[in-house]
Design a protein that fits this description.
40% of the residues lie in helices and 15% in strands. It is α+β, with helices and mostly antiparallel strands. Helix 3 (115-131) runs antiparallel to helix 6 (217-228), helix 6 (217-228) packs across helix 9 (262-282) and helix 9 (262-282) runs antiparallel to helix 10. The longest helix is centred in the C-terminal third of the chain and has 21 residues, at 262-282. The two termini are 35 Å apart.
């Protein structure tokens, strides 16, 4: 959520004229994240997050906004788009597809998560996977095994020998990822600590659905575990892990085949974000407030999964 495209005040005022939101009060760029341009926008009637999409074409974006609306309408506390006077969610601003999303209260988790926050994330993710079976649309993941293979080939010449060896071994270990017989459906696929808003230990909402896609539900759970369940050393620890998994199981118990492939999917999720952060490090995009996150954080987690496979916590 960095600023790649600068939005002038006059342009924003003109953009807001097609909504019934009153006058613009203030706006400011958001520095966190790495994919899209985001601003906090306050009007006379409400507060929003304005997103200008840097990586997606206009015609592709309806899916993400529909996902957000679907979960909101099914009782999941989540950010949802604001319609303009004609009922449209998606518009154009400064040459980019753009949407206004209602700003929720709370803030992302900047530090390590508490056990209660891990429990809340496990619970909400299980609920999302339960209600998500009725979502009618579908979208193929853009960061699946084919992307991981292509990005690995691009990055291998830039890595030290040890990292390159780990990467090659993981590609081999995960080579049958697409053939796993696992429950499949709509996923958030990016449910990190900065994409869930809390007030203390109370979850106020889920945001940033712009990696939503059809994937293994187990992959969505693995992404969450790899980020939420780490301690101050950046390693996965049991108390947070048990809290998240127990809460998830109460909503959607894992199937036998999911338990069997848990380590593989955890490693696939760690590999995906190690590669994407390496991509941002070695091939950065220009932006006013861009932020590049540390790739080694996910290399550390990947190594942990290789050396100390997690046991699936009982419900």
């Amino acid at each position: 959520m960095s600023v790649y495209t600068e939005v002038g005040r006059d342009d924003l005022i003109a953009f807001l004229e097609s909504y019934s939101l009153g006058e613009l009060v203030s706006y400011e760029g958001i520095s966190e994240g790495i994919e899209n341009t985001n601003y906090f926008v306050t009007t006379e009637k409400a507060k929003f997050v304005l997103t200008l999409f840097e990586q997606h074409e206009f015609d592709d974006l309806g899916y993400f906004l529909d996902v957000m609306t679907f979960f909101y309408q099914h009782g999941i506390p989540s950010a949802h788009p604001e319609a303009d006077k004609q009922g449209h969610y998606l518009k154009t601003l400064c040459g980019r597809p753009a949407a206004l999303v209602v700003r929720l209260s709370g803030r992302g988790v900047d530090d390590i998560a508490t056990v209660s926050q891990c429990h809340a994330i496990g619970n909400i993710l299980g609920r999302m996977h339960q209600v998500g079976v009725d979502f009618p649309a579908a979208r193929t993941t853009q960061r699946g095994s084919a992307w991981r293979q292509q990005m690995a080939e691009k990055l291998l010449p830039l890595l030290d020998n040890n990292s390159a060896q780990i990467l090659k071994q993981e590609l081999e270990f995960q080579s049958n990822y697409q053939q796993l017989d696992l429950p499949f459906g709509v996923t958030h696929s990016d449910l990190f600590r900065d994409n869930a808003l809390f007030e203390g230990d109370e979850l106020k909402g889920i945001i940033d659905f712009y990696y939503a896609c059809d994937e293994y539900l187990l992959y969505d759970l693995a992404v969450a575990v790899n980020d939420w369940c780490v301690d101050s050393n950046g390693l996965l620890e049991q108390t947070r892990y048990q809290a998240l998994m127990s809460a998830y199981h109460q909503q959607r118990p894992l199937e036998v085949n999911e338990v069997t492939h848990w380590n593989l999917v955890l490693r696939a999720a760690a590999l995906r974000f190690w590669l994407s952060r390496l991509q941002d490090k070695h091939f950065p995009r220009e932006g006013e407030l861009t932020q590049i996150k540390d790739p080694d954080a996910f290399l550390k987690i990947l190594k942990q999964h290789r050396e100390q496979p997690l046991v699936v916590a009982a419900a």
